[in-house]
């Protein structure tokens, strides 16, 4: 019986119903056997990386549930005996798509690179907790959208005048636009 290099349960040598204690003991046993300090071959290094990757996914209950739902069940179906029938010709195409869906985040709308904005605040604005008007522009699939936002300065002062990676939702009439905004004050 050959070990499949993509099935995390087979890499660790446990079944899919194992508990955390069994998973941890199997990981430690294999990690000691294939650790680069104990085994200097290139195959051992690659095997150790796969063991660590498998353990990182399976030790987290949320990742493990997603793995069991999307990848492990599909993997079992993928290794059926192939015949020349048309119904089984597409089985090999389903597995990579579900694997990509599990390991990657799908972006619905491509948003361009972040833009850094520099703002100048006077001391009076910082002392009196005023709002600062700011022009924000962002690129969404070839369109340039410009809007004016009001940013509270006392919030900026508390965070050492730096704001990074906030997601603002601007509601205009019935239109909701999500803006990734990177600002450097």
From TrEMBL:
Top-rank taxon: Bacteria
Annotated ranges, domain J: 7-71
InterPro entries registered for this protein in UniProt: DnaJ_domain, DnaJ_domain_CS, Hsp70_co-chaperone_J-domain, J_dom_sf
GO BP field: ERAD pathway
Signal peptide region: none
Pfam families given in the database record: DnaJ
TM region positions: 100-118, 138-157, 164-183
This protein's UniProt keywords: Chaperone, Membrane, Transmembrane, Transmembrane helix
Gene Ontology molecular function, alphabetical: misfolded protein binding; protein-folding chaperone binding
SMART domains in alphabetical order: DnaJ (SM00271)
Protein name per its UniProtKB record: Chaperone dnaJ
Source organism of the structure: Bartonella rattimassiliensis 15908
